[in-house]
Automatic annotation (TrEMBL):
<dbReference type="InterPro" id="IPR009081">
    <property type="entry name" value="PP-bd_ACP"/>
</dbReference>
<protein>
    <submittedName>
        <fullName>Acyl carrier protein</fullName>
    </submittedName>
</protein>
<dbReference type="InterPro" id="IPR036736">
    <property type="entry name" value="ACP-like_sf"/>
</dbReference>
<dbReference type="Pfam" id="PF00550">
    <property type="entry name" value="PP-binding"/>
</dbReference>
<feature type="domain" description="Carrier">
    <location>
        <begin position="7"/>
        <end position="87"/>
    </location>
</feature>
Length: 88
């Protein structure tokens, strides 16, 4: 995956997160280092399910339930890296 692709994926993942958790966290304010599950109160278990659905629809892949774990959802960067691996 190239740097441009990584940045594009990071941006698109940030947009998906903003769509799910609301405008308090704009996609531009989310960086690769932004911590997710457990750190953003808006990203509770229901929002996580919605985020997975949005990512699957937006990127055209199906997330395996074994991949739904704290490591993948640790940060925006780890989630973007996972998504990039699914579409790359």
């Amino acid at each position: 995956m190239t740097i441009d692709t990584t940045e594009a994926t990071l941006d698109r993942v940030g947009e998906a997160i903003t769509e799910v958790i609301g405008p308090d966290h704009s996609a531009g304010s989310l960086t690769a280092a932004t911590l997710l599950f457990g750190s953003l109160p808006e990203l509770d278990s229901l929002a996580l399910v919605e985020l997975i659905t949005v990512l699957e629809d937006r990127f055209g892949f199906e997330m395996d339930e074994d991949d739904i774990n704290a490591e993948v959802f640790e940060s925006v960067g780890s989630l973007a890296e996972y998504v990039g691996g699914q579409i790359g």
